[in-house]
């Protein structure tokens, strides 16, 4: 298993909280209002965090629990008042209620609160204490809650309907690319949740008070008649199993990642087998050849570099699969929580830790693949930083970075190889200047 950092606390943690994952999940549902049950600062932090990351307005409301209501209220009052205030101004198709550490410690009955409001507003609730789990588990738990509470059971099957359940690390463009690719096999494809419509950076007519795109509540209710369900990432595997419980005739397929040649091959082989075709669409075959060429072109740079990954487990697995195929030497994977699949990846060090642990391994490495919070360490040691994960506060177009299937894997390899070469040239140039002086 992964080593656990020996420190009694985390310094500069990589991990983000469960409520933030829940909030992202509800933002992938059309006309949904995420409602964070906790103190006002929790919602403010998350709103600012995602607004800066996506460079887009983010819809969220809070029950604004304070020290008085925390003591005297059982949770019902602040939730019902928030719903009344929200519905005065807008009419959401769904309110996604999720908890924080404060209200979980207090033990608020959010299920009861939702039942009291069911005649006024359709709601889904999920327990997401921020003293356990991470962004990944908060997102996955919310999908499971939506499946349990909203999707209606079925026995019939629509042979042309497919559903993908993405993990939180899949960016809006990646969800869109996976949907478009499956549709080439003759499917109508839905995603739960679908950030490709809501947080993809499109220019809307005006800033709305609710989520601007995504899967509709009516579409969610009828997901159980899909003939094919694909879960992508180990964190959402359980969500797929819960959806299959709604209809035992669903064909459920799970992928730990869709990064790299081998995983993409498996994905397309499955689709060809289901649809009984000998070869996928010509554009897919063409992209496979491009990825093969990318592996050849980039392996000189990538094979000569030592790399540290500091990301959520599902994203570590996906990126590691891609770069190892090009000969990468992974010095260390520092992640946020235990995932047995990480043990199968070739790397020198594997641990659940923080950025202080990252710094220790980065000294003897060339490249860090991590979020914006890794920048200070790469600047300190003159290493290269490939930005992935949450947050990226200085970059633009984060929602359109594609790392999956043949096309995305090729782009990711080119980006990494160019970064390695650029970092190497800069360091040689600086060393030359230092010798001259």
Core attributes:
globular; 46% helix; Rossmann fold; 437 residues; 6-stranded parallel beta sheet; alpha/beta
How many DSSP-defined strands? 14
What is the residue-averaged pLDDT? 92
| Neighbour order of strands in the largest sheet | 1-12-11-10-13-14
Radius of gyration: 22 Å
Query: What is the share of helical residues?
Result: 40-55%
- Kindly identify the CATH topology of the largest domain: Rossmann fold
First-to-last CA distance: 49 Å
Structure annotation, total helices: 17
Q: Main sheet, how many strands, which sense, barrel?
A: 6 strands, parallel
CATH structural class of the largest domain: Alpha Beta
CATH architecture of the largest domain, please? 3-Layer(aba) Sandwich
Q: Helix/strand/pairing class, anyone? A: alpha/beta
Name the shape in a single word: globular
Strand content: 15-25%
Identify the quaternary structure here: single chain
Count of discrete structural domains: 3
Uncertain segments of ≥5 residues (pLDDT<50)? none
CATH superfamily descriptor of the largest domain:
Nitrogenase molybdenum iron protein domain
């Amino acid at each position: 298993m992964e080593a656990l950092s020996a420190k009694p606390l985390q310094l500069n943690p990589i991990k983000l909280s469960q409520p933030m994952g829940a909030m992202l999940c509800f933002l992938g549902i059309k006309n949904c209002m995420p409602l964070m049950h906790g103190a006002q600062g929790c919602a403010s932090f998350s709103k600012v965090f995602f607004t800066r990351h996506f460079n887009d307005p983010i819809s969220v409301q809070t029950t604004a629990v304070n020290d008085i209501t925390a003591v005297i209220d059982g949770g019902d009052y602040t939730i019902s008042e928030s719903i009344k205030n929200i519905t005065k101004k807008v009419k959401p198709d769904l309110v996604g209620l999720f908890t924080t550490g404060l209200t979980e410690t207090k033990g608020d009955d959010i299920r009861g609160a939702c039942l009291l409001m069911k005649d006024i507003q359709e709601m889904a609730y999920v327990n997401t204490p921020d003293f356990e789990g991470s962004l990944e588990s908060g997102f996955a738990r919310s999908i499971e809650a939506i499946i349990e509470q909203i999707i209606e059971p079925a026995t019939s099957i629509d042979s042309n309907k497919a559903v993908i359940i993405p993990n939180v690390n899949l960016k809006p463009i990646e969800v869109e690319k996976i949907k478009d690719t499956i549709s080439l096999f003759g499917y109508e494809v839905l995603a739960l949740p679908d950030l490709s419509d809501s947080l993809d950076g499109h220019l809307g007519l005006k800033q709305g008070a609710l989520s601007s795109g995504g899967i509709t509540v009516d579409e969610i209710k009828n997901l159980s008649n899909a003939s094919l369900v694909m879960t992508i990432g180990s964190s959402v595997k359980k969500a797929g199993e819960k959806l299959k419980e709604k209809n035992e005739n669903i064909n459920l397929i799970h992928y730990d990642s869709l990064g790299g040649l081998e995983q993409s091959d498996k994905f397309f082989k499955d689709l060809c087998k289901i649809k009984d075709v000998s070869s996928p669409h010509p554009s897919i075959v063409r992209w496979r050849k491009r990825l093969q060429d990318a592996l050849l072109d980039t392996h000189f740079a990538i094979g000569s570099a030592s790399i540290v990954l500091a990301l959520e487990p599902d994203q570590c697995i996906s990126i590691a699969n891609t770069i190892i195929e090009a000969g990468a030497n992974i010095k260390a994977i520092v992640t946020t929580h235990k995932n047995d699949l990480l043990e199968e990846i070739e790397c020198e060090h594997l641990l659940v830790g923080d950025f202080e642990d990252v710094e220790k391994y980065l000294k003897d490495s060339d490249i860090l693949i991590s979020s914006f919070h890794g920048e200070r360490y790469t600047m300190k040691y003159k290493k290269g930083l490939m930005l992935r994960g949450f947050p990226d506060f200085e970059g633009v177009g984060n929602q359109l970075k594609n790392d999956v299937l043949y096309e995305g894997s090729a782009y990711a390899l080119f980006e990494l190889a160019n970064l390695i070469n650029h970092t190497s040239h800069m360091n040689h140039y600086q060393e030359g200047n230092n010798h001259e002086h």
